[in-house]
Amino acid sequence: MNQPAMFEKRIRRALRICWTPTLVLNLSGCLPTWAAQPIRALLVTGGCCHPYAEQAEILSKGISARAHVSWNIVNQGGTAKDSRIALYQKRDWAKGFDIVVHNECFADLADVAWVQRITTPHHAGVAAVVIHCAMHSYRDAKTDEWHKFLGVASHRHERARQFEIRTRNQLHPIMRGFPARWQPPGSDELYVIDQLMPTAEVLADAYGVETRANQACVWTNQYGRSRVFGVTAGHFNRTLEDDDYLSLVTRGFLWAVGKLGPDGNPTAGYGPKH
Ligand SMILES: [Zn+2]
Question: pTM of the full predicted structure?
Answer without folding.
Answer: 0.88
